[in-house]
């Protein structure tokens, strides 16, 4: 037996916040009671004396370490699985020691070493079906998959006959014994249970995407668990895609308990029938060994058509004289039609409320055969999904509360709200619709169906939800920070997050509340923001703080950066003063460069004016003299300013630097760049015209501008210096306070 290794050259995909990377070796969750302390690497002495470790097999399972070893006595290669606890239940070990099926891994030895259970198994070097699906998908065609199902049916039949439920059937736990013809064996019985009768458990062990709905919602373990897992495995192998790819475990649980699994992506009709049978929501409808064997023999056992109506609902309905055709079936029963439409939600919404009004008109005509629902009104201005929900609830108000394919009940609302808060899939839109159109009371009439929960308590959830939103609005009025106030009020783009979090706060359990309270308290200690800490003292404060934590983190980082700058200013105040004085020559050079640029520009303009000759020779001569005096005055003012400011003169306070900064700011956008160029050209044109007729004015204006501009630049530098000194003093005080504590 061997285990799949990860692909070393596979590119790593960057995921959105709140999501995780699914793969073929999804992590198997451990029972809370099986958590363990760290264990030393390597084998216990008793096993080390008998086996040489060739390599550690890279597995993502959490309950054991798996090694490829060689027996010192015989040289044979084996797989050694060393559990971090006692290992499987005794009944499971007994079964593995006496199993008959070739399609269950052979365990040659099991025992305990240093209080850790272990198993020695055959080494199957062909890899897993997950690896085979990735490396050679063409090998897993319909015929090959049928053969795999036959082998796994043989394995599961023997497993179940011994009262064992595997609980972790998945492609990564099915190893290839032989490629031609393809032969496989089921491995990894680490979390298997002895359940000769239906058994409820309190743990959440298993791989979430392969768990059946009755286990997700109620931890019920029956042999039907493994048949569901087999159905998901066949679905993945047939489509080449992981089931519910990209969703985290919480959202997968919501999807599994929200209704039938879509099998439309399975191309082969026989395999699609198998998947529909194995993935029935109801335990009573789900295929087992008998139905799968019939299917393998070419039969077509019955499969459920979709959502199941509550017991007796359809039988109590009066049937219409004229049928209504829908999805290749004629319906005379409103409840059964509503069930079929609910199972095909997206298609039905598009059909009835799309561009063509005829399907809805035909349905309304057919519905006239039944007593009217006085509370139903169709609002064309509402979204198609909302209109469909109102229509279906009027036809069958007792159907399980399904909206857009999601079973909206108290047990799924926490995951729905959390997913909406983190912007997962269509959950934000669902939460917005629940709020805006007050859909929870409408869904509260739904009763439980096969594999689905009823809407008990949804009307009370809606009332508490709206009360909490009003309280949050009132809490926002006392917040000075406008961004925090906007988020708490749920205005603008923050609306969905505020709605989702307030719904989550309404339905969260005690464990979730405790975790969120602990996390926010830790953040309050880390952020050191008085307003954030103050939120935690309010009613619902931990949720309010959760809503604005991202903004608080940004503010905390800004404050931390400012504190670090203050500390740096305090540590380096002497160096900065020394640097200011030492860099005066550099500052003077920038002052000379700025004045030289002014003189050069004036010289060019006066030269052009002299060549064009609109001005007299005396006027041009006066302009040269004015240029000399203006340059001298500007140089004096600029040099004095540069000497006083020192090393920080350029670029913030110099003529050249300030001009370039202003132009750069104006040119940050395309429109701003065009305006900056136009202004610059306009100034040059005015200067050229003015110099042509009054050449002395231009150098005088230039010199006067630099001299007069020196005063505000000097005052700005003084203000900046005082601010830095104050910041440095504050940094020194903070350092003393930190040392005192």
UniProtKB/TrEMBL annotation:
Keywords: ATP-binding, Kinase, Membrane, Nucleotide-binding, Serine/threonine-protein kinase, Transferase, Transmembrane, Transmembrane helix
Origin species: Paractinoplanes brasiliensis
UniProt protein name: Serine/threonine protein kinase
Residue ranges of domain Protein kinase in the record: 52-296
Keyword Kinase among UniProt keywords: yes
Residue ranges crossing the lipid bilayer per the database entry: 586-609, 621-643, 670-690, 696-715
Pfam families the UniProt entry points to: Pkinase
Region of interest called Disordered, as start-end residue ranges on this chain: 1-43
A GO molecular-function descriptor: ATP binding
Cited InterPro entries: Kinase-like_dom_sf, Prot_kinase_dom, Ser/Thr_kinase_AS
């Amino acid at each position: 037996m061997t285990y799949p290794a990860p692909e070393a050259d596979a590119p790593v995909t960057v995921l959105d916040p709140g999501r995780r990377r699914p793969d073929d070796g999804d992590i198997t969750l451990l029972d809370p009671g099986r958590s363990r302390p760290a264990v030393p690497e390597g084998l216990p002495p008793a096993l080390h004396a008998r086996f040489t470790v060739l390599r550690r097999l890279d597995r993502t399972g959490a309950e054991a370490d798996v090694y490829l070893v060689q027996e010192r006595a015989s040289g044979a290669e084996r797989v050694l699985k060393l559990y971090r606890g006692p290992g499987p239940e005794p009944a499971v070990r007994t079964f593995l020691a006496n199993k008959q099926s070739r399609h269950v891994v052979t365990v040659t030895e099991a025992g305990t070493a240093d209080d850790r259970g272990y198993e020695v198994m055959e080494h199957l070097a062909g890899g897993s079906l997950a690896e085979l699906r990735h490396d050679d998908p063409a090998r897993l065609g319909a015929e090959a998959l049928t053969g795999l199902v036959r082998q796994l049916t043989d394995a599961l039949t023997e497993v179940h006959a011994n009262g064992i439920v595997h609980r972790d059937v998945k492609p990564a736990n099915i190893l290839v014994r032989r490629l031609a013809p393809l032969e496989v064996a089921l491995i990894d019985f680490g979390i298997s249970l002895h359940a000769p009768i239906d058994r409820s458990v309190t743990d959440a062990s298993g791989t979430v995407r392969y768990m059946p709905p009755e286990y997700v919602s109620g931890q019920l373990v029956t042999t039907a668990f493994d048949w569901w897992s087999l159905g998901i495995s066949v679905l993945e192998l047939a489509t080449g895609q992981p089931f519910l790819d990209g969703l985290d475990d919480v959202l997968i649980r919501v999807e599994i308990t929200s209704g039938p699994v879509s099998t439309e992506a399975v191309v082969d009709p026989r395999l699609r029938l198998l998947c529909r049978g194995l993935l029935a929501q109801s335990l009573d409808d789900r295929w087992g060994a008998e139905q799968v064997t019939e299917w393998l023999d070419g039969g077509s056992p019955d499969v459920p058509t979709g959502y199941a109506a509550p017991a007796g609902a359809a039988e109590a309905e009066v049937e219409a004289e004229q049928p209504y055709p829908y999805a290749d079936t004629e319906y005379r029963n409103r409840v059964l039609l509503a069930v079929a439409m609910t199972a095909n939600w997206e298609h039905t919404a598009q059909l009835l409320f799309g561009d063509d009004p005829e399907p809805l008109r035909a349905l309304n005509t057919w519905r006239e055969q039944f007593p009217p629902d006085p509370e139903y009104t169709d609002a064309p201005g509402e979204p198609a999904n909302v209109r469909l929900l109102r229509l279906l609830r009027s036809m069958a108000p007792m159907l399980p509360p399904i909206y857009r394919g999601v079973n909206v009940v108290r047990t799924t609302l926490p995951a729905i709200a959390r997913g909406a808060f983190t912007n997962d899939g269509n959950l934000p839109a669902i939460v917005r619709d629940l709020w805006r159109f007050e859909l929870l009371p409408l869904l509260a009439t739904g009763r439980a169906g096969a594999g689905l929960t009823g809407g008990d308590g949804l009307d009370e959830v809606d009332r508490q939800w709206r009360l909490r939103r009003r309280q949050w609005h009132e809490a926002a009025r006392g917040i000075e920070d406008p961004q925090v106030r906007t988020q708490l009020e749920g205005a603008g783009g923050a609306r969905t997050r505020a709605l989702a979090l307030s719904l989550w706060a309404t339905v969260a359990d005690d464990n979730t509340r405790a975790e969120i309270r602990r996390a926010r308290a830790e953040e309050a200690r880390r952020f050191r923001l008085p307003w954030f800490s103050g939120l935690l003292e309010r009613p619902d404060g931990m949720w309010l703080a959760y809503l604005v934590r991202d903004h608080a983190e940004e503010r905390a980082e800004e404050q931390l950066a400012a504190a670090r700058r203050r500390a740096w200013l305090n540590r380096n105040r002497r160096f900065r003063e020394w640097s200011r004085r030492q860099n005066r020559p550099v500052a003077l050079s920038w002052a000379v460069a700025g004045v030289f640029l002014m003189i050069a520009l004036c010289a060019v303009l006066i030269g052009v004016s002299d060549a064009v000759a609109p001005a007299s020779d005396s006027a041009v001569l006066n302009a040269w003299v004015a240029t000399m005096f203006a340059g001298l005055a500007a140089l004096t003012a600029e040099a004095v300013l540069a000497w006083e400011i020192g090393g920080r003169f350029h670029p913030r306070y110099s003529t050249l630097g300030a001009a370039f900064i202003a132009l750069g700011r104006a040119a940050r956008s395309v429109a701003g760049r065009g305006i900056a160029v136009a202004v610059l050209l306009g100034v040059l044109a005015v200067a050229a015209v003015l110099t042509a007729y009054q050449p002395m004015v231009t150098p005088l204006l230039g010199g006067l501008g630099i001299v007069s501009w020196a005063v505000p630049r000097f005052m700005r530098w003084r203000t900046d210096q005082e601010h830095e000194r104050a910041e440095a003093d504050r940094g020194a005080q903070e350092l003393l306070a930190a040392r005192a504590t």
